[in-house]
Structure to design on (754 residues):
């Protein structure tokens, strides 16, 4: 196919932002606005053939993303810009003064996109809603998708179009969805209007699509090798897209006619009216590209940009984990190999082989292949460990910025739970942190993905049914929150704090002459440190071993130390039962005449004045469900265990409530599998006691409800549940203001009728 096309060249670079440039807004012929992770919006005015930063708009408390231009009007005679941020705010700026005209508050989570609609601002958010704002006031709010809304645009005909993490686009006439576009296999991240043709979409699945307003796919453009973040079109028929693969690609008639490489992720790309292209890059630089030869950057600037790309590519190359420039003796390459350890690289380029000079043997030793390393911008270090991402998280309320490390292979709910515990933050932030991770790593929303952990029950805890509104009413009923599958565990521990507390207690014993015989020796302390190191070292977790002496030391402490001092020891046992080898070694001691675990349970529940003992003990027992070798013990002692911890449901300690309801939920699954009707009846009774207690917190009540529903659906106690008036309990739950309680209540009500 012959395509008439002139290649774009660099026109200029705009320096000023101190972090990733995230968004671009072309403000007619007046200039360009850009947003950044540095919390600012900059307005760039044309000056001769360059652009200069004429205004810095400061007001967001976290990184700024979407922008939209507001044309001149009576309130903003020189026009304005609306910006959205991670701080959940939409700010409207007066470009004549650089001051805020309006602060629009209402979204619960990050603002992801903004459109301008006949005088109104329309904003989209991770909170799944759209909001319409007029004169600084919110006039409409509606749930646009069941997942984060990532993009919103206005069509020339007046309708709005949204793109979401649920992989769909939706066409809106007012607050009514008139059509849903399905076809992408991952998040729809960017949208644009293709004049006279339809709607362009950019997706995390790496593709671009052109849709007719009727929903028909007119064209699919494939060529990016990573997430596509943005798309825009020009009246000439050209399309531009920006991607995590570091390229801005230009398309004509569905064919990629040029790929412009950047030294970092291309977050956004927009056409100016004259056809020039503006790109926003993670290196903090805004670049303008043109086909007009009169505007090309001079040769010095072009050579400098070529050098930037070359340095970036070289910085990514590794030999045995080291960067090329870190190889020993590399600076001596111009001298023939006579220095011990001197390095040389043969066929250095896209690939190569590195050698080091061996003085003793007078020969070159191969030390490794030259390979491309990870993206520097995407593989930062934190505490000496390399991650795919290290986020700056702004909790707000004047609290300091916190670092959140994350790898794309990690379960975001696990990461959120462990991070909140480490930072001593409330677990109520969990869902917001998870959505923050998903939003900023370009992952699909996990509400619809059973391979991820459910936000309320845990890793692989259950298989969710179809979302409401998607099930075939003629088919067998599906349930959104039941049945539960798998076991829940408490797999986070602050090991440094545990060791510190044990050392503190040991020093107390040493200072008490009457109890010095109970104290640990230096060898014992060293052994405990080695045990903790095994549990912390996830890289060798599954291949590491425990000795019988390790377990014997812990059990001796549980038996001999005073009750007030044993909770950090119980915490170590709690984590050992999750370790493949540790669980088996510990299990050898369960058949003994003196059952140490039952001894421990009686010890801590007889004297419940130490909440830490109760909490660590109930979590240790709950973690036993992870390994089938403990199932016989758990069934044998079911009544004793449940009776011993039954007072936890009425405790004012919310952590105790949650731990007890988790224990109940695990027992429900185990007893369903073993078809133990008597045991199921006891668990049902305990779960109903939790759900009927008005003082029980929401997450604990939810887990108890899931246990009730699972026992009714797959267990042997449905009739017993009906006799306990579970129908009225479910109806009351269905009316709850808490969405997850209302949903599981509706499930159980449906069960009573099936």
């Amino acid at each position: 196919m012959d395509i008439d096309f002139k290649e774009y060249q660099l026109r200029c670079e705009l320096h000023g932002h101190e972090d990733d440039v995230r968004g671009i807004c072309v403000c007619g012929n007046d200039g360009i606005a850009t947003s950044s992770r540095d919390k600012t919006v900059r307005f760039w005015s044309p000056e001769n053939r360059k652009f200069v930063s004429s205004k810095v708009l400061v007001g967001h408390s976290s990184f700024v993303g979407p922008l939209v231009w507001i044309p001149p009007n009576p309130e903003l005679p020189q026009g304005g810009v609306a910006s959205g941020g991670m701080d959940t705010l939409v700010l409207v700026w007066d470009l004549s003064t650089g001051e805020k005209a309006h602060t629009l508050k209402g979204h619960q989570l990050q603002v992801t996109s903004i459109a301008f609609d006949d005088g109104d601002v329309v904003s989209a958010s991770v909170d799944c809603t759209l909001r319409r704002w007029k004169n600084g006031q919110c006039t409409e709010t509606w749930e646009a998708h069941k997942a984060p809304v990532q993009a919103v645009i206005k069509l020339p005909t007046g309708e709005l179009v949204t793109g979401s993490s649920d992989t769909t686009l939706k066409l809106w006439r007012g607050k009514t969805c008139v059509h849903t576009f399905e076809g992408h296999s991952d998040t729809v991240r960017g949208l644009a209007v293709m004049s006279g043709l339809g709607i362009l979409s950019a997706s995390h699945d790496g593709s671009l699509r052109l849709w007719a307003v009727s929903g028909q796919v007119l064209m699919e453009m494939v060529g990016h090798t990573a997430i596509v973040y943005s798309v825009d079109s020009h009246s000439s028929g050209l399309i531009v897209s920006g991607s995590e693969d570091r390229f801005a690609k230009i398309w004509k008639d569905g064919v990629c006619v040029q790929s412009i490489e950047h030294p970092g992720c291309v977050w956004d790309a927009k056409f100016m009216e004259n056809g020039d292209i503006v790109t926003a890059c993670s290196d903090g630089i805004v670049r303008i590209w043109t086909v007009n030869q009169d505007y090309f950057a001079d040769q010095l600037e072009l050579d400098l940009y070529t050098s930037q790309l070359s340095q970036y590519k070289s910085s990514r190359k590794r030999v045995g984990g080291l960067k090329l420039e870190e190889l020993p003796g590399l600076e001596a390459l111009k001298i023939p190999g006579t220095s011990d350890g001197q390095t040389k690289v043969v066929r250095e380029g896209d690939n190569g082989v590195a050698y080091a000079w061996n003085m003793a043997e007078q020969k070159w030793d191969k030390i490794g292949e030259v390979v491309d390393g990870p993206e520097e911008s995407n593989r930062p270090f934190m505490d000496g460990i390399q991650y795919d991402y290290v986020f700056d998280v702004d909790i707000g309320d004047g609290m300091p910025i916190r670092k959140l490390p994350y790898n794309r292979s990690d379960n975001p709910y696990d990461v959120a739970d462990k991070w909140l515990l480490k930072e001593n933050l409330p677990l109520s932030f969990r869902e917001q942190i998870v959505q923050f991770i998903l939003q900023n790593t370009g992952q699909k929303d996990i509400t619809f993905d059973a391979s991820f952990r459910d936000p309320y029950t845990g890793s692989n805890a259950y298989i969710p049914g179809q979302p409401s509104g998607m099930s075939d009413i003629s088919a067998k009923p599906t349930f959104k929150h039941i049945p539960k599958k798998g076991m829940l565990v408490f797999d986070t521990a602050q090991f440094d704090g545990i060791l510190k507390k044990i050392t503190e207690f040991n020093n107390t014993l040493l200072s008490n002459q009457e109890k010095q015989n109970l104290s640990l020796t230096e060898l014992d302390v060293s052994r405990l440190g080695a045990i903790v190191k095994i549990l912390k070292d996830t890289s060798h977790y599954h291949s590491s071993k425990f000795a019988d002496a390790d377990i014997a030391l812990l059990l001796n402490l549980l038996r001999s130390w005073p009750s007030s001092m044993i909770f950090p020891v119980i915490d170590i046992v709690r984590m050992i039962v999750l370790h493949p080898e540790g669980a088996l070694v510990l299990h050898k001691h369960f058949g003994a005449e003196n059952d140490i675990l039952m001894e421990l349970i009686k010890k801590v529940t007889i004297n419940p004045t130490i909440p830490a003992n109760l909490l660590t003990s109930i979590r240790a027992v709950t973690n036993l469900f992870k390994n089938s070798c403990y199932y016989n013990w758990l069934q044998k002692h079911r009544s004793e265990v449940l009776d011993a911890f039954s007072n936890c449901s009425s405790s004012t300690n919310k952590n105790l409530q949650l731990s007890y309801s988790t224990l109940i939920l695990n027992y429900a699954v185990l007893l369903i599998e073993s078809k133990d009707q008597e045991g199921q009846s006891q668990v049902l009774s305990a779960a109903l006691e939790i759900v009927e207690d008005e003082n029980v917190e929401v997450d604990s009540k939810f887990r108890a409800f899931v246990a009730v529903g699972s026992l009714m659906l797959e267990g042997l106690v449905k009739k017993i549940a009906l006799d306990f008036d579970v129908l009225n309990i479910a109806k009351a739950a269905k009316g709850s203001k808490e969405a997850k309680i209302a949903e599981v209540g509706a499930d159980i009500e449906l069960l009573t009728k099936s």
Remarks:
- Residues 444-476 have pLDDT under 50 and may be disordered.
